[in-house]
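Appendix B. Raw example, untouched.
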Amino acid sequence: CKLSGLVTEAPPGAVTAAFVPVSDAILSAFGPGRIMFGSDWPVCLLAAGYARVVELAMSLVAGLSEAERTAVFASTAIKAYRMGGSGRGADGAGGGGAWLLPTRRSRRSSR
């Protein structure tokens, strides 16, 4: 589940407290390990700047442990989008989040 799109769905000028019931419901239903932050950029610009969106999300997860916040802002997305793997690139070098490339050729390849 993505923690995103909140500012565009709220009334103009909504304060952080107005978002707490929504974030609490999301966190209760999915848990931090199955939630990822999404900025909803550029659509969020209709209601707030990117800095405000990040600030809001950070405020909403402030009560979580550091590991849980890391899950929301990084590791859940790394897992969902299969970006992390072993954290090593094809050459074995570290890179923490190196992209995994396909290991088989496309059937459309002319080679």
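End of appendix B.
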